[in-house]
Design goal:
The complex is a heterodimer of chains A (180) and B (502). With 180 residues, chain A is mainly α. Chain A is built from six helices and five strands, in the order E-E-H-E-E-H-E-H-H-H-H. Chain A has helices at residues 26-51, 64-85, 98-121, 123-138, 143-164, 173-177; strands at 7-10, 22-25, 55-56, 59-60, 94-97. In chain A, strand 3 (55-56) and strand 4 form a beta hairpin. The longest helix of chain A has 26 residues, at 26-51. Chain B starts with a helix and ends with a helix. Helices cover 74% and strands 2% of the residues of chain B. The longest helix of chain B is centred in the first third of the chain and has 34 residues, at 106-139. By secondary structure, chain B is an all-alpha fold. Chain B has one domain. Classes of the chains: A mainly alpha (180), B mainly alpha (502). The interface between A and B is large, with 76 and 74 residues.
Chain lengths: 180, 502
């Protein structure tokens, strides 16, 4: 089937290879998550015990409800953990392959950097950098297109939220130059 | 016919230029959200919520619910033209919709999808119009024990009736309830689970969690997949629309069946996804020619779309009447109500008539306008998919951050959103459902308050939950639903030996 004018075709040149080796199995991740949840449940249970988890004259204390919830959470996580050691189905599915994880990092790392940049540069400058950088490096889109899109989007956001709807965002030195 | 008079009043609230314009904006944004990969109904609504903070509640809810209708319509476009369900509830639409597009009948399939969506929501809205006020006035007599019993019923039915592994639903739900409890305790004023952090003092905001869980995690999940796509362009002509509408009455049984399934699963926490599959499967089972399904049969588009929309719309019924959302998106709308300073629950029908009936009237109008809008603008929205994901992804990230920050003006919330994004990504991949978490997080404090108020009222006697026939039967039903998988297995074991051998 060759693309005709009735068709819309979008290519994805950097798609993750399907034969990429597995980085983590579902079972390993399930065990890790169960352990983490168990730890969280224990932590919260201890904290609520400190707050007070029994009954006083007016009814249950502040820690009562959450204490028993953390007990249920611990029990459910423990069940999940034990279940992983008695697998019914021998086949273990892949959680993520190396190539897939690379792609996930491609979006996670810039997002992390964006959050950091927001603290120092303000949200609008950070969003300009994120969009331009992401389009140019990850998407391999022409630099002028990336810069233009990023500028227009950031400006549109600024006008919508800051001016039209009065929603105040974190701002940095650049906005200060323009008196905002 | 009191409902009818109130509905007319609702329309009178609605018919101002400002609200109609907001409606169009909402619908257009919603269709975008539905069409774009990596953005779904719940996150679309959550991200756009900050836009409404400075509006009055009626305009706000009309715009937000229109985003939701738009997303429901938009999901069908990509399913049919590209074989890519924009939303999980449009998976079943691809079964027959995409083959139809391949046979050059894309316009018919799209018209069928939009029209049946419209029919489905219309049935659900009628149900809401005539049922919700009754339920609400009944619920006005509820005290804390009754409310706690209803919350318990909601939570238990998620565990007992959900298709996910039970312990995973339980994990998701208890985690949500626990996180809802972080911060200042509303009854005693004590701090709990804050670990000395000033940022946790405010508690974990429900909308921040939702934006992270659905928005950020969805981008990571989308990036993992191959993003290449190939599909058909389509244009809908009036002739095709009329042709499909002429055929419509022939499928009244399918439409009716799917509407009923959808409404039922929408009110109970079955959800639009289950409804669309069930609608499709039942249409196939009752068909005289089941083998023709999956090869481009128009009935295979009617059935799931009607059910999905009926369910998506009727999920708002328990939210309006009882303050209990029937779906993830309804939970976010409920979160919105609290932001706008309204107290969800049966009192809404008494104290905020204009708001409630404006919303109900907007469901009628929004669906009519939405239908006309999608029918005329399909080619444009299909072309939106040409925009590369590497341009869309960072824009979604920015919108998520704006949304998360705007709720409480806190940088901490942006970090929290990022954390929830990672959690959502991992949870989705190992099959821990997110809907119970969302529901628990939004209802957690109310459920706990109801529990503690009833305990205070009853002097710590648990029997208060069986103190009268109403609260007793709700509590018992909740427990039955919680243990339903065990009970149904037990019944099977008893009944099977009694059945005659074939």
């Amino acid at each position: 089937m060759s693309p005709s004018k009735d068709e819309i075709v979008v290519e994805d040149p950097s798609a993750p290879a399907s034969d990429s080796p597995a980085l983590a199995s579902n079972r390993a991740v399930e065990i890790a998550v169960s352990l983490a949840l168990l730890g969280l449940a224990a932590l919260l249970a201890l904290d609520n015990r400190r707050t007070g988890m029994s009954w006083d004259s007016t009814g249950p204390q502040a820690g009562y409800f959450p204490f028993y919830l953390s007990v249920i959470l611990a029990a459910a996580s423990l069940f999940g953990l034990v279940k992983q050691f008695f697998p019914r189905k021998p086949a273990d599915k892949t959680f993520v392959t190396r190539a897939q994880f690379g792609r996930v990092l491609q979006v996670f790392a810039p997002t992390l950097a964006f959050c950091l940049a927001t603290q120092w540069l303000g949200l609008y400058v950070a969003s300009f950098l994120l969009i331009a950088g992401f389009m140019a490096w990850v998407g391999r889109i022409a630099v002028w297109k990336s810069l233009l899109t990023a500028l227009l989007f950031s400006l549109a956001m600024f006008v919508t939220f800051e001016i039209a709807f009065d929603v105040i965002m974190p701002k940095g030195p650049v906005e200060a130059l323009f008196g905002h | 016919m009191e409902a009818f008079g109130l509905l007319v009043y609702g329309f009178s609230v609605l018919l101002t230029w400002k609200i109609l314009a907001l409606m169009m904006v909402g619908l257009t944004l919603g269709i975008f959200v539905g069409v774009l990969p990596g953005l779904g109904g719940p996150n679309g609504v959550a991200i756009l919520l900050p836009l409404t903070f400075t509006m009055d509640p009626t305009s706000a809810i009309v715009m937000l619910s229109c985003i939701y209708w738009g997303a429901l319509f938009g999901g069908a476009i990509t399913s049919i033209l590209f074989n890519i369900p924009g939303e999980a509830w449009s998976v079943a639409t691809t079964f027959d919709g995409y083959p139809m597009a391949q046979q050059g009948k894309a316009a018919e399939a799209l018209t069928a999808a939009f029209t049946s969506s419209f029919v489905g929501s219309l049935v659900a809205v009628l149900l809401i119009t005539f049922l919700a006020p009754g339920i609400a006035s009944f619920a006005l007599r509820f005290g804390p024990p009754e409310f706690f019993a209803v919350y318990l019923l909601t939570f238990c039915s998620f565990v007992g009736l959900g298709r996910e592994e039970k312990h995973k639903t339980l994990i998701s739900m208890t985690l949500g309830l626990l996180l809802a409890g972080v911060g200042m305790d509303t009854v005693s004023g004590q701090l709990r689970m804050t670990f000395g952090s000033n940022d946790l003092l405010r508690g974990i905001n429900f909308l921040v969690a939702v934006i992270g869980l659905f928005g950020i995690s969805e981008i990571m999940l989308t990036m993992e997949e191959r993003l290449a796509l190939r599909g058909h362009a389509a244009r809908i002509s009036l002739r095709v629309v009329l042709k499909v509408w002429k055929e419509l009455p022939r499928y009244w049984m399918t439409l009716l069946r799917s509407s009923v399934i959808g409404c039922w699963l929408g009110i109970t926490p079955g959800g639009a996804i289950a409804a669309s599959f069930m609608g499709y499967n039942l249409a196939k089972r009752f068909s005289k020619d089941p083998d023709s399904f999956g090869k481009g049969r128009i009935e295979g588009v009617f059935a799931p779309e009607t059910a999905a929309h009926a369910s998506g719309t009727s999920a708002l019924l328990p939210m309006l009447a009882l303050g209990i959302p029937g779906s993830g998106t309804a939970a976010i709308l409920l979160g919105g109500l609290m932001v706008w300073g309204l107290n969800p629950g049966p009192l809404l029908f008494v104290e905020h008539k204009g708001f409630v009936w404006g919303l109900i009237a907007s469901m009628y109008l929004g669906n009519v306008v939405g239908l006309l809008l999608v029918l005329t603008t399909v080619p444009f929205f299909a072309a939106v998919l040409r925009v590369p994901f590497s341009a869309i992804a960072p824009m979604i990230v920015v919108s998520c951050a704006i949304g998360a920050f705007a709720i409480q003006n806190a940088m901490f919330d942006i970090w929290l959103m990022l954390g929830f994004g990672v959690v959502g990504y991992v949870f989705k991949k190992i099959g821990i459902p997110l809907a119970p978490f969302t529901l628990a997080l939004v209802l957690g404090n109310r459920a706990e308050d109801a529990f503690r108020l009833s305990m205070i009222g009853a002097g710590g006697d648990m029997r208060v939950f069986w103190s009268n026939s109403l609260v007793g039967s709700i509590t018992t039903l909740a427990l039955i639903l919680l243990f339903w998988p065990l009970i149904s297995r037990a019944i099977e074991r008893i009944v099977r030996p009694l059945q005659p051998a074939r």
